[in-house]
DNA sequence: CGGAATCCAGAAAGATACTG
DNA sequence: CAGTATCTTTCTGGATTCCG
């Protein structure tokens, strides 16, 4: 199918914007095995602050990718869960992961080679 | 294969970082049909400034995803071309595009529904 | 525990002008 | 045309603190 036209004002940009965020894909991935509480997510994911996690969850919720469930009881218990749409996004996320698995070494090698040739490292 | 562990310090993050940039994927996509000159890229892609395009190209080059060819002649003629590794990245990019094609409507609908319910729109 | 409120540093990206 | 140099604005993510 090939979905041409990522360019100009294309709808595919919508998906790219979802990825152009450090944590969106990571959090979705961390939710793949079922509902999770924020504290669990922070354990599974390394190095994400409470604030940033909350922001990310709001963002995903806003885009209809996750649902928030507040179970009432002693204290507070909240869980987040993938929606069907959110779950469907795991497919392309997995494709990205598979690529990294296959080609990550070559990218790192290219980075080191560029540095060795005195090229400054762009931010990313 | 499923490439578990996107979490903590995993190599898959390397790939996510490549995507967590507004323009990387778009520029790679614009190069899919063969070598392109910067001015051509700016035409195909909408709304990218010369400066940002250059930065993006340097970044992709640094990661070994594209090559730069400077043809000498009257004036200046430069072309950028995908490396084999860069071309391989089109596969996951295409998966993302296919997802957007299939589910983009639902995401946009969710956004509008959230707004209608008075939820503020997170940045992304 | 969940999460909201601040404050802050750094990075990304846009606009503009300029050089070869 | 390709690329650089500034300047400015916006965004992101991190740290800290406080409330229910």
Supply the key terms:
homodimer; 124 residues; mainly alpha; Arc Repressor Mutant, subunit A; two-stranded antiparallel sheet; 2 strands; 54% helix; elongated; DNA-binding; WH-like_DNA-bd_sf (chains A, B)
Q: Quaternary status of these chains?
A: homodimer
Structural class of chain A: mainly alpha
| CATH superfamily grouping of chain A | Winged helix-like DNA-binding domain superfamily/Winged helix DNA-binding domain
CATH topology tier name of chain A: Arc Repressor Mutant, subunit A
The first-level CATH class name of chain A:
Mainly Alpha
One letter per element, helices H and strands E, the order of chain A comes to: HHHHEEHH
By DSSP (H or I, 4+ residues per run), the number of helices of chain A equals 6
Q: What is the largest interface, and how many residues per chain?
A: A-B, 66 and 66 residues
Distance between the termini of chain A: 30 Å
Q: What is the helix content of chain A?
A: 40-55%
Give a description of the structure:
2 copies of one chain form a homodimer. By secondary structure, chain A is mostly helical. The first copy, chain A, has a single domain (11-116), classed as Winged helix-like DNA-binding domain superfamily/Winged helix DNA-binding domain (Arc Repressor Mutant, subunit A, Orthogonal Bundle). Chain A is 54% helix and 11% strand. The first copy, chain A, contains 6 helices and 2 strands, in the order ααααββαα. A two-stranded antiparallel ribbon of chain A has the order 1-2. Chain A starts with 11 loop residues before the first helix and ends in an 8-residue tail after the last helix. Residues 1-6 of chain A have low confidence and may be disordered. Chains A and B meet through helix 1, helix 2, helix 4 and helix 6 of A and helix 1, helix 2, helix 4 and helix 6 of B. Chain A binds a DNA duplex (20 and 20 nucleotides) through residues 21-23, 37-39, 47-55, 70, 75-78, 123-124.
């Amino acid at each position: 199918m090939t979905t041409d036209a990522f360019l100009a004002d294309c709808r595919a940009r919508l998906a790219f914007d979802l990825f152009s965020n450090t944590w969106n894909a990571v959090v979705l991935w961390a939710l793949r095995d079922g509902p999770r509480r924020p504290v669990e997510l922070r354990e599974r994911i390394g190095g994400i602050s409470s604030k940033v996690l909350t922001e990310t969850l709001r963002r995903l919720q806003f885009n209809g990718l996750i649902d928030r469930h507040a179970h009432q009881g002693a204290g507070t218990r909240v869980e987040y869960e993938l929606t069907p749409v959110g779950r469907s996004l795991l497919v392309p996320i997995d494709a990205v992961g598979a690529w990294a698995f296959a080609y990550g070494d070559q990218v790192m090698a290219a980075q080191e080679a560029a540095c060795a040739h005195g090229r400054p490292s762009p931010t990313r």
